[in-house]
Amino acid sequence: MSCPAPDTREPASASFLQDVMLALLVSVVFSLCVAFIAASPVVNTAALVVREVHLRPNETVIEKRNVGGVYICSGTNWSGTCGHAVQPLNTCIVLGSDWKNKIASFGPDSCTMCFAYKTTNCAFGDGFFWMFQNPGDASGGRSVTNNAWNTHIASFKCWRSPDCYAS
After folding, report:
1. pLDDT tens-digit series, residues 73-99
2. Is the peptide bond before 88 cis (omega within 30 degrees of 0)?
3. Alpha-carbon span 19 to 66, nearest angstrom
4. How much is the pTM?
5. pLDDT, tens digit (0-9, with 9 covering 90-100), for 105-149
6. Is the N or the C terminus of the chain less surrounded, counting Cβ atoms within 10 Å?
7. What is the pLDDT of residue 154?
8. What does the alpha-carbon distance between residue 103 and residue 154 come to, in Å, rounded to a whole number?
9. Does residue 104 have a pLDDT over 50?
């Protein structure tokens, strides 16, 4: 019997953890009807630039992607118009008219965690936001009672996943 290798991962950055804790705190406060709205400045107002990716049945994407990459599709189960783009971390990405409220599959790359918002400025103001980690969700969020995200995403912000700081 062999012993497991020691955990050599570096601790998650304080800035990232503060961002996540703030996001969770704001959502709890809002759900308790306190008039606190956390809005982050909109840095990127350009449309999401993507490249179309076509996969044959049973084909997988094996290329290693960069942290911050997001694969999105207009249909559930990774169907419809799809694209992949690497976005700057900790930056609000405001979707252009070609993607705004049209995403039904959302898949961050490895080591990427994203919050998607119903608002166009990555704010929790309307109470609707969703968290995605690799491999993502291709269901359109229809399994989430009273909060399906299918065709409601107007902006998103991504960070490096806390479990990937050693890689």
Report:
1. 999 999 999 999 998 999 999 999 999
2. no
3. 21
4. 0.60
5. 999 999 999 999 988 899 877 667 889 999 999 988 876 666 678
6. N
7. 92
8. 9
9. yes
Class of domain 14-55+67-164: mainly beta
| Nearest in space to 74 (alpha carbons), one of 90, 50, 109 | 50
Place of tokens 């902006």: 155
**Length in residues, the chain:** 167
Note the pLDDT of residue 141.
82
Q: Give DSSP secondary structure letters for the chain.
A: --PPPP--PPPPPHHHHHHHHHHHHHHHHHHTT------PPP-B-SPPP-B-----TT----SPPPTTEEEEEEEGGGEEEEEEEE--TT--EE--TTTTT--SEEEEPTTEEEEEESSTTS--TTS-EEEEETT-B-STTTTSTT---TT---EEEEEE-GGGTT-
Place of tokens 């995200």: 149
Nearest Cα residue to 105 out of 65, 154, 58, 141: 141
